[in-house]
Amino acid sequence: MKEINVAVTGGAGQIAYSLLPRLISGETFGEETKVNLRLIEIPQVVDKLEGTIMELIDCGFKQTGELVATSDIREGVKDADWVLLVGSIPRGIVIDGKKIEERSDLLKINGGIFTAQGSAIGELAKSDAKILVVGNPANTNALIGKNQANNPSQKWFAMTALDANRAKAQLAAKAGVEISSVTNMAIWGNHSPTMYPDPYNAKIDGVSAVEVINDTNWIENDYLPLVQQRGKAVIDARGASSAASAANAAIDTVKAVESPTASGDCFSAAIASDGSYGVPEGLIFGYPLRTTENGEVEIIQGIEINDFAQAKIDTTTEELLSEKEAVKGLLG
Ligand code: NAX
Predict the structure, then answer these.
(1) Which atom in ligand 1 lies closest to the alpha carbon of residue 136?
(2) Which residue in 38, 106, 185, 319 has the most C-beta neighbors within 10 A?
(3) pLDDT at res. 81
(4) In this structure, what CATH number is given to the domain that contains residue 170?
(5) Are β-strands 155-158 and 196-197 bridged in parallel, bridged antiparallel, or unpaired?
(6) Distance CA 131, CA 150 (A)
(7) Which residues line the pocket of ligand 1, CB cutoff 6 A?
């Protein structure tokens, strides 16, 4: 059996609880791949991972390799093939007597975490390691981490697959079709309420989603907020943020990167811009992507951007630029 090393931060969190069994069950990396899992947590929480490891053992998957719990990021990411950076500090936490509510404070605190994690990954993870940032603010955390890693052969992604799945679900419900009928869903920009879940290039059974739905008012005024505010709606209803669907989206992203994309389709994740679609180079920006037969991940070119889409892309770009400005001290 082939063996791979997968590191996950935030291993005791709620997303990890749904994510970890699926990483070691054969579902994500294949039936014939043994997965060595390193779970990384902050020192105050790391002991809890022993319980998680007991449960993972008790799942009894034949693909389960070595299971390690650590609070040392360097030990965790050494020789990693994949690193899933799920852990981060949530809004509302009290640090040194101050409640962290402002996005700028959140950016700086989490940015501090991602500088250390980024440099450990750059130095110690495999040279072809793939890194998926889930912890928010995901795009800017990935920007900081990638910058600190300074290892161009490693590939950094920030997760927008949950947004894509949410967007597909809304279009499918409106059109009265199975979700599998909805393809070509691009999430442009930031994983935040400014994201642009592109209905103009999405397809339903191969036909433009906008044409099938034939209701511009719904598309432009109802659908976008439904997708952009879905995370908040889940929190309001569940009393906790999305966890099973976030874990599922992380698995979807890993699988999308690891296998060629179906002809004519795309998957969504944020990667470093190469200037495509006028986005400043280096920003970690949500794009429609494809994995080639050779395992390369490419930004799909030539997608039509109408005035409505361009305005949305400009707004999300501006937000990412302001996030970048807020953390410029952490970019080295
Ligand atoms: P939890 O608060 O349940 O778990 C986070 C865990 O991370 C905690 O156990 C904490 O101790 C750990 N942690 C904090 N700092 C760490 C560090 N430096 N090293 C290792 N572990 C560390 O949050 P959960 O619901 O699991 O969400 C995790 C992150 O995902 C949050 O930032 C959340 O905002 C983000 N999300 C991102 C999504 C996306 O689509 N990109 C969607 C879901 C989710 O909201």
Answers:
(1) 32
(2) 185
(3) 98
(4) 3.90.110.10
(5) unpaired
(6) 13
(7) 9-10, 12-16, 40-42, 45, 86-90, 113, 134-136, 138, 159, 162, 191, 241-243, 246
